[in-house]
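hi support,

uploading two proteins for the ticket. first:
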Amino acid sequence: MSGNVPSIRFSGFTDPWEQRKLGELYTVSDQKNVDGSIGVEKTISVSSMSWNPEGNGASADSLPAYKVLNYGDMAFEGNRTKGHSYGKLVINDIGKGIMSSRFRTLRPVSEVCVPFWKYYLQDSDAWKPLFIRSTKRGTLMTELVPGELLKGAIYLPDMPEQVAIGSLFTHLDSLITLHQRECDRLEKVRASLMQSMFPQPGETLPSIRFAEFTKPWHSKQLGSLVTPFDHRIPTPTDGYVRLGVRSFAKGTFLQDVPAEQAIGETELREVGPNNLIVNIVFAWEQAIAITSEADTIALVSHRFPQFSFNDGQCPDFYRYALLDPRFRHHLWLASPSGAGRNKTLRVDEMLEYWILVPSFEEQRAIADFFAAFDRSLDARRRLCEALGHVKNALLSSMFV
């Protein structure tokens, strides 16, 4: 951005943005729902600018005291617990409704481009200086002083450019929402498949199988499927990479340990690929994982026992099979209570867990299926994240 011209613009727009006093564009509004004609189903949640058809618990008799918020009106949300240290203005882009009388309200003097303002109000660089000068801080709430705010000035383009900018971000948000809904749908499908492609309590076969597999699943103790993996080395004196295991079966992570922090353990364990690994202190929170090739650069302490899978077992299958809530409950039972969240796992009891397993070929097919499904879901999530980054970059570049 240079002066009063944004750094990114649509072609055809070259005029500098014009500085305008807010008082020329908006005025204070205290319109009340005096006749009660707007019902509770039109209650607006200001922070999210969405309908709250159940209302906020107020009686019907109090509705005439509620403020009216028209399309294009702005309300000030001063609750600092919602992540805005000086509060925020939110423009009504959903339609005429009512809200608590505690909110300060501004009404446009003439027609405004609501989509443009919706996104312009998200530009903290433009609005924070105005809020600093026109708000008073309470314990939890920031109070707006409308008269001071309306003395402030902002930069605005002409109406056609406002429309173009508003339309761009509206379409971008629609695209993000579309992909996010698809992510949500795929996650529900995945959860359903996890229930259907593994036997549920009281069952010996899954309800959905690949057509080529008809052999029964067999009940095995976990200890008969794995072998302890315990490759010890002296603790490096020049630093090393440490592996951690996230709770709730969220996988592993790697951490650099500088030389000066490499103390307290005279020896560590190498990490093998495709091993079952568990954090014995947080096993009750399902701090388990199957290691990958990338994890083999790391070392772990004795608190992270590992087990390699025996011949005839597909390690990737167990990435999914051990997500079973029954196994998490078993880990909890095998972890006697300790101080705080620390409950040390009895490893021998963990290995007594009985699990239904199919043939190696069916294990491989199930693992490959969920791996492909997860790659598709991860790609969709990354697309959502990328679109969000694009939006944030444009928000910082298309406004003055």
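and the second one:
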Amino acid sequence: MNDKLLDPVTPGEILCDDFMKPMGININQLARDIAVTSDRISDIVNGKQGITADIALRLERYFGVEARFWLNLQSEYDLRIMKRKIGTDIERRIIPIQRIPMEVPSPSGNFRRDL
């Protein structure tokens, strides 16, 4: 089956199905425990709102799962949605620039040849 046809899973679904439900935590309890409104958690769980850096930090503290995990889920979801929405148009309208080998800084600050 082509995974391009499947709807991406929202970060809220993962929060609910993989964390809240197995631990017996409902929306009101999570909201209370991480000091946000239940409407905010409900919107995240129902895919109406994304996971922000603020929420990611709160979830990190609560569940012990790094904030980066939650933000990566959200970024991946956003990219998949946007690719579906405008990916074909971008591929059609934007022509890639011809790459010229150049020196670029590595994460350590040293320069390396980019191939």
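thanks. also noticed: The longest strand covers residues 102-105.
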